[in-house]
Write a structure and sequence with these properties.
There is one protein chain. The longest helix is centred in the middle third of the chain and has 16 residues, at about 30-45. This protein has helices spanning about 5-10, 10-15, 30-45. The chain starts with a helix and ends in an 18-residue tail after the last helix. The radius of gyration is 16 Å and the shape is elongated. The chain has 3 helices and no strands. Helix content is about 40%, strand content about 0%. The chain is mainly alpha-helical and about 60 residues long.
Length: about 60
């Protein structure tokens, strides 16, 4: 279903040539759900063809 869109975004892959693509995912959450979010992310990556290269946490101040 999404193959036509993927082929437009990455036409080299449609031709059979493989290129490495890096994506960045930066969720921002309160400290309470952080551990659960990390566990879900690691679990999802273990069942997928994607590779998790890094995982880090930092405390930031959110000003409303």
């Amino acid at each position: 279903m999404l193959s036509p869109l993927a082929n437009r975004l990455h036409p080299a892959q449609a031709s059979g040539e493989e290129n490495e693509v890096a994506y960045s995912f930066e969720p921002v959450c309160q400290q309470d759900p952080e551990g659960h979010l990390r566990a879900l992310l690691v679990q999802a990556m273990s069942r997928n063809t994607l590779t998790l290269n890094a995982l880090r946490s930092e405390n930031i101040e959110i000003i409303n």
